[in-house]
# Entry
Amino acid sequence: MQNILIIEDEKRIAHWVKTYFERAGYSAEVAHDGKVGLAIARESSPDLIVLDLMLPGIDGTEICRRLRQESDVPIIMLTAKGTQPDRLNGLDIGADDYIVKPFDPEEVVARARAVLRRVKGTVQKSITIGRLTINTDAHSASLNGHSIDLSQAQFALLLAFAQHQNQVLTRDQLIELAFNGRYDAFDRAIDTHIRRLRKLIHEDGFEPIQTVYGAGYKFSVEAK
Ligand code: CA
# Structure
């Protein structure tokens, strides 16, 4: 479960945003002042921070600046003022997005989801699934510690599978996930890529790419 840290001194707003995140399936914690917020951000490495600009202790701008020196954690800034210089400043200091009060908490959750989707794969540098390790930075993968020679398309497909384990994916979804929809070959070509990918990563007792007849494919290392 992804963890959201909300640094906001207005308790009612903080609670409200927390509730919306929890309803959307995230875990969320709240800090009501800048100092505490910064300490929690460092200790608990949240997946995303919702950060108010005007805070007692250390203000949001300063927290953002300090965190940026240490990590790439996604930050969405909240501010009461929507003037242009404020917006620019917020993005300038490294916030990933900016929301002006008053806001709809559902919009905060939606923006957070978009930011998290954008940074996915850049935050987590390697993914290990059973005998398989995928390095998202180097665009490489290894099986039982031996590197596998993958084409760009095969790597993109493998990563898409790894990030959506145990989900049935249609060919269209795979094209969207792996190639951002920029793939105009016949969808049978996907089957060819997958067949080759299987040959590279499958071995006795480890066959994660499963065909789901009439639907698509599923990547799973759980017992069937
Ligand atoms: Ca405030």
Q: What stands out?
A: The mean pLDDT is 87.
